[in-house]
Amino acid sequence: MLDGTVVFSFDRTGYARHSRDFAVSSPGGLDSPNALSGQVAVVTGANAGIGLETSRLLAAAGAEVWMVCRDPARGVAAVATVPGARLAIADMSNRMDVRKLATSLPEHVDMLVHNAGALVDKRVTTADGLETTFATHVVGPTMLTRLLGARLTPESRVVWVSSGGMLTQRLRWDGQPWTGGRRFDGVVAYAQCKRMQLLVAEWLVESGGARSPWHATMHPGWVETAGVRTSLPTFHRYTQNILRSPAQGADTVAWLAAARRGDNGRFWFDRAEAKPYWFSWTRESEAERKAMLESVEFLSRP
Q: What's the pLDDT band for 227 if we cut at 50, 70, 90?
C-alpha cells in the first residue's frame, strides 16, 4: 500500500522498508573488502552525490575505480576521498572528450556506471550541435559503451542510472529532440532522456547478442543531491525532509555493478526488478523507438 503512494516508496522511508529484504537479496560483490579485487570500475559523474558514493562502495569492496569528472578541481577533491581511485576528466556531453576518455581507460572494464547527468532550464546546444540533456544522458554514454568494445566482455556489467521521472513520460521523437516547434521543458527533457536510456540499453543488448555485456537501468529513488537542490528548487523545498541520502541512492547502483542480476537489460529499483512502464500511454510507438535508436546509433558511432 505504501509503495502505491509513490512518495512513501521513492523517499527515505521507502528505502528503509525495502532494505529489510536486502540481506536475502545477496550483497554479491559488496560483501567483503576484497570481493571486487582485480576488477575495474568506471563511474561517470563521480565528483559528488550518487556517483561519488557509488565509487566509495565499489572501492571499499576492492575494485580499481576510475572516477570520471567534468571539472578538474572538483574531480581532484572527490578522488582524494576514495582510497586508490583514479581520476579521468571528461565532459560526457562532448563527443571528443568521450573519445579521449575511452583511449585513457584500462584494457579491461568490469563495471561501467553511466551516472553523469544534466538538468537544464533552457535549451543549450553543445559543441557538437546537440541538445545538452540528450548529449549527456544518451549520446555520450552510448558512445563510451560502444568505444570500449571488446574491453566490455559478456561478464562485464553496465549500469544506467535513470530516474523515476521517466515513468510518467512517453518518448516523443521529432528528429533530434527539442529542435522543432515544441517548447523546451528541462524537466520533461530530462525524464524523456532517462526513458531513452532504457531503450538504448535494450538495443545494445539485442545488437550485441552473445557478446553483449550485462546491462541494467535503475531508479535510485528521490535523492538529496546538488542537482535536485539547484535544478528542482520547488520539489526540493517540499521534499527535503524525506529525500534519500546519496549513499542510499547509490546502494542499488553498486549492487548491480558488482554482479550480474537477473536477465540482461532489465529495469531495477531498490535491488528488485521493477516495471519500466506504469501506464499504457507511456509506451512509445515502434516507429518512434526505431527512429530514436537509428539517430543515437549514428551520433554515437565509434
A: confident
Give every CB contact of residue 150 below 8 A, 6+ residues apart in sequence.
none
Q: Taking a C-beta distance cutoff of 8 angstroms, is the pair 189, 248 a contact?
A: no
List C-alpha distances in Å: 108 to 38, 46, 103.
Answer: 10, 20, 12
**What are the residues whose beta carbons fall under 8 Å from the beta carbon of 23, sequence distance 6 or more?**
none
**Domain map of the chain by residue range?**
3-299
Order of strands, edge to edge, in the sheet holding 214-219? 86-89, 64-69, 40-44, 111-114, 157-161, 214-219, 266-269, 272-273
CA angle 190, 149, 177 (to 5 degrees): 25
Residue 143 bridge partners (DSSP): none
Task: State how far the alpha carbon of 133 is from the alpha carbons of 63, 79, 166, 220, in Å.
Answer: 30, 25, 14, 19
Q: Does domain 3-299 have CATH number 3.40.50.720?
A: yes
Q: Is 277 a catalytic residue?
A: no
298 phi/psi in degrees, rounded to 5: -70, -45
Span between the terminal Cα atoms of the chain, in Å: 46
Which residues, in sequence order, are bridge partners of residue 114?
A: 160
According to DSSP, residue 213 is labeled P
- Weakest-pLDDT range from 39-43, 108-112, 222-226: 222-226
